[in-house]
C-alpha cells in the first residue's frame, strides 16, 4: 500500500483497510437509485460538474458529437428542459436561458452586433434596456439610433448600410403601445437586418413574435413565464444559429441561469395558459371601469377601443391583451398609500398577486426628466400589474382608493 511520506494520520490509523470511513463518506450514495418508476416532476440537478468515463467520451462531449453535460456555466439538465419548453411555446428552433432578462437581451445584441455595426431601437423600451443601448453599446463602437417604432417611415429613414438589428417590445413598458411586428419584420429584412422583440409583457400565451417574422425573442423569466416572483432569469429564443451564438456569449460572459431558477420557472410555466387568461380578463375589466372614472385622467391598455393601436392589437392578440395596464391619477402618492395592504407597491410585475409600480422613479429612472416626459412617463403615472384575484375584490379595492 502506497502511503504519503508524511502521514498526518499516523497516530490514529490502526491498520490499512480497502475503504476507510473518510473515503466511504466522500464517495458513497452518488449513483441514482434504480427504480421502475420515474419522477413526475424533473428533479433539481444541483451539480456544478459532471464526470466522463474516459477520454473518448470527454472528447465526444466537448466536440459536441454527443449530448453531455460537463460544467454548470455551460448548461444544466434543468436549464435544457426549460429551454425546450419555451422554444416549443414560442414556436422557435431553439432557446437559451440566461441569468436575467438583461443578460438575455445583452447576449442577443452582442451575438449579432460588432464594432462598426448599427442598431435601431424603439425609444419607448424598458429603461434599463435604454441605458444599455445609450451608455454601454457605444463604448464598444456600436452605433445606436432611437426612433418612434410606431412610425414605420421613421424606422425606415433610420436604416443604414451597417444596420444589423432592430429592437422593439411587443407591448411597451409602461405605456402599452403595440409594435406592428409583421411590418417591422418585413422592413428590417428588406434592409438586411434582423428583428429582435422583447415579448415579456405579452408572453407566448397571447403573442408569438416568431409567427410574425421576428428573428430573436427575449423574456425576463421572473415575469409571466414564472409568474410567482420566486425565480430569476431570462431567455433568448429564435433561429437555431442565432440562439447558438447568443448561448456562446452567455457562457463566455458567465450569464447562464441557475438550475434552481430554471426548475422554479418550469413549475410556473406549467400554468401559463391558465394564468394569462385570468390576468387578461381581469385587466380588461379594470381598464373598462377605470377609463370612465372621474378621478382617473387616463388609462393605457391595448384592449380599449380608445387605444391608438387597438385595431392592430385586436388583429395580433386574439387571445387577450395581457395583464398589464397603466393609469394616470392626480395624486399618485395618496392613491398608493390608500391601497397599502391590498395592492402593494413593488418594482416588478406579472405575479399572481396584483402590484403597482411607479415608472418615474424605478424602471425609467435612468432617463432624463425631459426624456421621460417626452415619451409619456409622468410623476402621476402608475403601472398596474393585474393579478388573478377575484375581479370584484380588485374593483372594490380600486374604488375605495379612488374615493
Word description of this protein:
This protein is an alpha/beta fold and 403 residues long. The chain folds into 2 domains: 215 residues, Type I PLP-dependent aspartate aminotransferase-like (Major domain) (Aspartate Aminotransferase, domain 2); 131 residues, Aspartate Aminotransferase, domain 1 (Alpha-Beta Complex). α5 links the parallel β2 and β3. α3 runs parallel beside α9.
Q: Return the structural class.
A: alpha/beta
Number of strands: 11
Averaged pLDDT: 94
How many helices in DSSP terms?
14
Offer a concise description of the structure.
With 403 residues, the protein is α/β, with parallel strands linked by helices. The model has no long low-confidence stretch (mean pLDDT 94).
Key terms for this structure?
single chain; 403 residues; alpha/beta; Aspartate Aminotransferase, domain 2; Aspartate Aminotransferase, domain 1; 2 domains; 7-stranded mixed β-sheet; 4-stranded antiparallel β-sheet; 36% helix
Helix-strand layout with pairing:
Elements: H1 21-27, H2 55-62, H3 77-90, E1 94-98, H4 101-112, E2 118-122, H5 127-136, E3 143-147, H6 152-158, E4 163-169, H7 181-190, E5 194-198, E6 216-220, E7 234-238, H8 240-253, H9 259-269, H10 272-290, E8 296-300, H11 310-316, E9 324-329, H12 332-339, E10 355-357, H13 369-374, E11 381-385, H14 391-402
Parallel strand pairs: 2-3, 2-4, 4-5, 5-6
Antiparallel strand pairs: 1-7, 6-7, 8-9, 9-11, 10-11
Amino acid at each position: 500500500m502506497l502511503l504519503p511520506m508524511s502521514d498526518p494520520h499516523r497516530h490514529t490509523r490502526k491498520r490499512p483497510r480497502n475503504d476507510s470511513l473518510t473515503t466511504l463518506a466522500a464517495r458513497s450514495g452518488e449513483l441514482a437509485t434504480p427504480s421502475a418508476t420515474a419522477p413526475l416532476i424533473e428533479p433539481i440537478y444541483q451539480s456544478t460538474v459532471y464526470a466522463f468515463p474516459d477520454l473518448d467520451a470527454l472528447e465526444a462531449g466537448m466536440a459536441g458529437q454527443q449530448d453531455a453535460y460537463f460544467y454548470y456555466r455551460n448548461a444544466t439538465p434543468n436549464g435544457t428542459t426549460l429551454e425546450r419548453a419555451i422554444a416549443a411555446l414560442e414556436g422557435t428552433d431553439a432557446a437559451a436561458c440566461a441569468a436575467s432578462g438583461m443578460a438575455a437581451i445583452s447576449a442577443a445584441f452582442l451575438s449579432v452586433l460588432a464594432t462598426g455595426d448599427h442598431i435601431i431601437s424603439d425609444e419607448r423600451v424598458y429603461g434599463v434596456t435604454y441605458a444599455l443601448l445609450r451608455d454601454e453599446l457605444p463604448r464598444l463602437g456600436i452605433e445606436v439610433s432611437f426612433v418612434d417604432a410606431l412610425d414605420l417611415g421613421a424606422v425606415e429613414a433610420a436604416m443604414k448600410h451597417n444596420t444589423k438589428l432592430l429592437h422593439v417590445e411587443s407591448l411597451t413598458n409602461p405605456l402599452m403601445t403595440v409594435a406592428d411586428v409583421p411590418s417591422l419584420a418585413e422592413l428590417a429584412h428588406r434592409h438586411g437586418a434582423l428583428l429582435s422583440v422583447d415579448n415579456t409583457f405579452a408572453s407566448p400565451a397571447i403573442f408569438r413574435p416568431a409567427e410574425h417574422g421576428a428573428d430573436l425573442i427575449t423574456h425576463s423569466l421572473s415575469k409571466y413565464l414564472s409568474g410567482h416572483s420566486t425565480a430569476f432569469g431570462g431567455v433568448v429564443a429564435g433561429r437555431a444559429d442565432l440562439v447558438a451564438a447568443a448561448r456562446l456569449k452567455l457562457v463566455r460572459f458567465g450569464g447562464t441561469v441557475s438550475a434552481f431558477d430554471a426548475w422554479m420557472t418550469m413549475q410556473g410555466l406549467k400554468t401559463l395558459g391558465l394564468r394569462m387568461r385570468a390576468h387578461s380578463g381581469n385587466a380588461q375589466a379594470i381598464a373598462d371601469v377605470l377609463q370612465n372614472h372621474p378621478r382617473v385622467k387616463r388609462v393605457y391598455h391595448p384592449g380599449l377601443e380608445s387605444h391608438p393601436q387597438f385595431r392592430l392589437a385586436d388583429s395580433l392578440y386574439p387571445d387577450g391583451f395581457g395583464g398589464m395596464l397603466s393609469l394616470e391619477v392626480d395624486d399618485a402618492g395618496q392613491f398608493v398609500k390608500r391601497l397599502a395592504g391590498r395592492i402593494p407597491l413593488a418594482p416588478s410585475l406579472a405575479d399572481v398577486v396584483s402590484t403597482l409600480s411607479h415608472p418615474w422613479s424605478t424602471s425609467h429612472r435612468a432617463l432624463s426628466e425631459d426624456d421621460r416626459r417626452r415619451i409619456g412617463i409622468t410623476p402621476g403615472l402608475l403601472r398596474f400589474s393585474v393579478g388573478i384575484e377575484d375581479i370584484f375584490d380588485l374593483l372594490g379595492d380600486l374604488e375605495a382608493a379612488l374615493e
